[in-house]
Specification:
Layout lengths: L3 H19 L5 H5 L1 H10 L15 E4 L5 H11 L5 H5 L29 H20 L11 E6 H5 L1 H13 L4 E7 L19 H8 L2 E7 L3 H12 L6 E6 L22 H11 L10 H7 L2 H21 L1 H12 L6 H15 L3 E2 H12 L6 E5 L3 H4 L17 E3 L4 H14 L3 E7 L7 H9 L5 E5 L17 H7 L4 E3 L4 H13 L5 E5 L3 E2 L6 H7 L4 E4 L6 E5 L3 H14 L4 E5 L3 H5 L3 H7 L6 E4 L8 H4 L4 E3 L10 H7 L4 H11 L1
Parallel strand pairs: 1-2, 2-3, 3-5, 4-5, 7-8, 7-9, 9-10, 10-12, 11-12, 15-16, 15-17, 17-18
Antiparallel strand pairs: 6-13, 14-16
Helix pairs in contact: 1-3, 1-4, 1-11, 1-12, 3-10, 6-8, 6-18, 8-18, 13-14, 15-21, 16-21, 18-19, 23-28
The structure holds thiamine diphosphate (TPP) and magnesium ion (MG).
The site of magnesium ion has 5 residues, from loops.
Length: 664
């Protein structure tokens, strides 16, 4: 029989040896959390290494993701498909052991972590998705959605502002199946030079109690039995999320470097590693784990049993509730409803027939209203701007602190909201849409980046998309945001010009399985544009000819509120016998993915181009080149009625026409 100490020491050894071999990484955290990890993974975590996608597994999130070797060690030892060869190639090109854990790369990694504070936010989202799905799908005697979310976090996550946003909300929502284990080691990076109490003196237990969490204080993080007992206690909680505060020593086991900032993020060095082996009684060479230790960690039999038991429960559920069972399966697989395509096409056609001139944010609400009844997985919310973002629809039911519902009042927490949405999408079973003013998208930016990096289907509703919002002034008027969002690799960005483009954008966002979509909507009314059937179909290609003229001498490219102006400029020019083509380009990212032939049809070589968008001009240079021109806005806006601002900043048909003449 191996001792629990040996099991924990296996983690220590793998971490210090892999970091040493890579000459890069963070040994201190895995060495300090080894007993906590052993207690959770060997006594509590319900997971199946053979099937990392098992729907009802417990979720485990390493929010202090710099300690990635802890997670790789756990996955390897417990029997996931992560062979020792991968651990030996820690942090090397195309290994499965990236510097920080990456979802989609390493089996068993539930979310990509490293940007501190977002892991705990993802965990809140996972716990929330579990709660919502349980309320929707569980029936008497059939607790079919029933798992916990565990998260490790350190001082860094707690210092980050986002932890306040999401832990505050988790407390309000009473997410009792969320259990966080805090690595309270009194060290962060600058502890190399000074004491953490010079920058972090919060009373963390009181802070979390104030949020409405249950806090289990003063647990000895190096006593696996004590940690396990605390987890058992936490599991009994029925109304609150639980924080278990574990006192630990960073780099525990290393005679000289333990409890120093130096253990945080650098190899221990050969000498200290040898001394550590001696001190902890680990007499095996690097990357060698005795069979008995493997046996002590092996979670495969337990995992298979747990999943089989759940499968049996699911069969019984499916017998009594076949429709629900089929629906849950579909939703967890991320498939859209069978009649989705028909429904979406019908909605798009109806919007075209209605021909309404309304704000695109209103068109978005109408799109949600029409699409959501056929799409129960669409769950949404806004960061305290429901009435402005128009995210609420007639089927919205608020999520409270007992379960049920499909609408989240996120409060004024943009970053938290977006990182929670990532957790919900990663959990599966829901498609989250979240909303704020476009200008505040940069409060949330790193969560948007993580959604794009992780290829998650999250839909952002960003309204009040330009100076067109008017009187609120330059703080609220985005100018750089559309361009910034388009620069994020794998982010799709739509800035539609009317109801048809808005509806098409929503449909594209929902049908996109491998990344997030930002939808940029106007506050003000935008003219409806007439289109042929072929043009309606081409909206989905991101850019298309909206209005053509024989022998066009120039192409005017416009998005959103500027499309109408482009059409008016086209008329002014026609009156002077200058033929132009107007291209509506609601989604440059989507247009860029079209084949070269289509792109050249829309934007032929040999005629100059003028781009018109109430945003920074630089972005459009790639379409207009140096010979073309951009009607944009390269400064912050002003506070005034929208109409006046458009005139003031040169967004008029007359100005566009004269700019076009300037490039002929
Ligand atoms: C958002 C963000 N800012 C900065 C960093 C760089 N960083 C990585 S770990 C760390 C200190 C974390 O302290 P703690 O969580 O206490 O980790 P420990 O040293 O105890 O392992 C910092 C600043 C980061 N990963 N993410
Ligand atoms: Mg710390």
């Amino acid at each position: 029989m191996t001792s629990k100490a040996d099991l924990a020491n296996a983690i220590r050894a793998l971490a210090m040896d892999a970091v040493q071999q890579a000459n890069s990484g963070h040994p201190g955290m895995p060495m300090g959390m080894a007993e906590i990890a052993e207690a959770l993974w060997n006594n509590h975590l319900r997971h199946n290494p053979a099937n990392p996608a098992w729907a009802n597994r417990d979720r485990f999130v390493l929010s202090n993701g710099h300690g990635s070797m802890l997670l790789y060690g756990l996955l390897h030892l417990s029997g996931y498909d992560l062979p020792m060869a991968e651990l030996k190639r820690f942090r090397q090109l195309h290994s499965k052991t990236a510097g920080h854990p990456e979802h989609g790369m390493t089996p068993g990694v539930e979310t990509t972590t490293g940007p501190l504070g977002q892991g705990i936010a993802n965990a809140v989202g996972m716990a929330l998705a579990e709660r919502m799905l349980a309320a929707e799908f569980n029936r008497d005697g059939h607790a079919i959605v029933d798992h916990r979310t565990y998260v490790f976090l350190g001082d860094g996550c707690l210092m980050e502002g986002i932890s306040h946003e999401v832990c505050s909300l988790a407390g309000t929502l009473g997410l009792n199946k969320l259990i966080a284990l805090y690595d309270d080691n009194g060290i962060s990076i600058d502890s190399e030079k000074a004491q953490i109490k010079q920058w972090f003196t919060d009373n963390t237990p009181q802070r979390f109690e104030a949020y409405g969490w249950r806090v289990i204080r003063d647990v000895d993080g190096h006593n696996a039995n004590a940690v396990s007992a605390a987890i058992t206690e936490a599991q009994k909680e029925t109304a609150k999320p639980v924080l278990i505060c574990c006192k630990t020593i960073i780099g525990k086991g290393a005679p000289k470097k333990a409890n120093t900032g130096g253990a945080h993020g650098a190899p221990l060095g050969a000498e200290e590693i040898a001394a550590t082996r001696e001190a902890i009684g680990w007499n095996y060479p690097p990357f060698e784990i005795p069979e008995a230790v493997y046996a002590g960690w092996d979670a495969r039999a337990r995992g298979a049993k747990a999943e089989t038991a759940w499968n049996e429960k699911f069969s019984a559920y499916a017998k009594q509730h076949p429709d629900l069972a089929a629906e849950l399966k579909r939703r967890m697989a991320g498939e859209l409803p069978r009649d989705w395509k028909n429904h979406a096409a019908k909605v798009l056609a109806q919007v075209g027939e209605k021909a309404e001139t309304i704000a695109t944010r209103k068109a978005s609400q109408n799109a949600i209203e029409a699409l959501a009844p056929a799409l129960p997985e669409l769950v949404g919310g806004s960061a305290d701007l429901a009435g402005s973002n128009l995210t609420w629809w007639s089927g919205s039911k608020p999520v409270g602190n007992t379960g049920g519902g499909n609408y989240l009042f996120f409060g004024v927490r943009e970053f938290g909201m977006c990182a929670i949405a990532n957790g919900m999408a990663l959990h599966g079973g829901v498609i989250p849409y979240v909303a704020t003013f476009l200008t505040f998208s940069d409060y949330a930016r790193n969560a948007l980046r993580m959604a794009a990096l992780m290829k998650q289907r999250v839909v952002y509703v960003f309204t009040h998309d330009s100076i067109g919002l008017g009187e609120d002034g330059p703080t609220h008027q985005p100018v750089e945001h559309a361009a910034v969002l388009r620069l994020l690799p794998n982010m799709d960005v739509w800035r539609p010009c009317d109801t048809v483009e808005t509806t098409a954008a929503w449909i594209a966002a929902i049908e996109r399985r491998d990344g997030p979509t930002s939808l940029l909507f106007s506050r003000q009314n935008l003219n409806f544009q007439k289109r042929s059937t072929a043009q309606i179909a081409d909206v989905a290609r991101g850019g298309y000819v909206l209005s053509d003229a024989p022998n066009a001498k120039a192409a005017i490219i416009a998005t959103g509120s500027e499309v109408t102006l482009a059409l008016e400029a086209q008329k002014l020019l026609a009156a002077e016998n200058i033929a132009t083509r107007v291209v509506s380009m609601p989604a440059t990212t989507v247009f860029d993915r079209q084949d070269a032939e289509y792109r050249a049809q829309v934007l032929p070589k040999g005629i100059p181009r003028v781009a018109v968008e109430a945003g920074v001009s630089d972005f459009w240079r790639k379409y207009v080149g140096l010979e073309g021109a951009v009607v944009g806005i390269d400064r912050y806006g002003e506070s005034a009625p929208a109409g006046e601002l458009f005139n003031y900043f040169g967004f008029t048909a007359a100005n566009i026409a004269s700019v076009v003449k300037g490039v002929l």
